Amino acid sequence: MANPATVTFLSLAAGAVGYCLYFDYQRRNNAEFRKSIYLKKRQAEKEEKLKNEISKKEKTEVLKKKLVESLLSEPLSTSNKEQTFIEEVTLAEKLSAIVGKEIDAAIRFYRALSVYPDPTAILDIYQKSVPAEIYELIMLLTAIYPPANITSLLNESTASVQETD
Questions:
Q1: How far apart are CA 114 and CA 131, in angstroms?
Q2: What is the pTM of this model?
Q3: Which of 153, 159, 74 is closest to 117 using CA atoms?
Q4: What does the radius of gyration of the chain's CA atoms come to, in whole angstroms?
Q5: Helices and strands per DSSP (H, E), number in the chain
Q6: Tens-of-pLDDT digits for all 165 residues of the chain?
Q7: How far apart are alpha carbons 142 and 136 in whole angstroms?
Q8: Are 138 and 126 in contact, with CB atoms under 8 Å apart?
Q9: Cα–Cα distance, 63 to 65 (Å, whole number)
């Protein structure tokens, strides 16, 4: 006599194979079925896109809030920029190694960027050495609240373009 577990397994496997055959037959021969699959796929893509946009807005708000909190609780030292830069990068590297601390690491890298005299050079270094997710957060932080050294760099380049016109 057959084991009840074997019978159950075989009947479930036969049901799954039967459903696969039914689904394939409907997909190939029924235009309405194909259309419904296509519409469901498009609806799922729209929902995913909307969900991503909402999560991006939420991420931006969280980043903005954490950045302001960080800058208010620990203002950047302008007296010893080199030491501040080294401390911030060291702490950021330690945080980037910890899963779940990507936002904190990005804020520390941003703080280091804020005191570095040549922001374009350090952004190039970040792009090569920092994980892509954290680098994306750093760029988002600079878009939310550009550091003074980047703002002055942009003002200088705008002034030089206006002078040549």
A1: 19
A2: 0.61
A3: 153
A4: 27
A5: 7, 0
A6: 679 999 999 999 999 999 999 999 999 999 999 999 999 999 999 999 999 888 888 888 888 888 888 888 888 777 788 888 888 888 988 988 888 888 888 888 888 888 888 878 888 888 888 888 888 888 888 888 887 755 554 455 444 444 555
A7: 10
A8: yes
A9: 5
The three-class DSSP label of residue 57 is helix
Residues 6+ apart with CB under 8 A from 107: 63, 66, 67, 70, 141
Type of residue found at 75: P
| Amino acid (one-letter) located at 51 | K
- Tokens of residue 59, six digits: 């991420």
Largest distance between two CA atoms of the chain: 95
Cα four-point dihedral sign 28, 34, 37, 43? positive
CB 73 within 8 A of CB 111: no
Residue 74 DSSP label: S
Token pair of 93 as six digits: 């590297």
Q: Which two tokens mark 45?
A: 């893509």
CA distance 165 to 77: 38
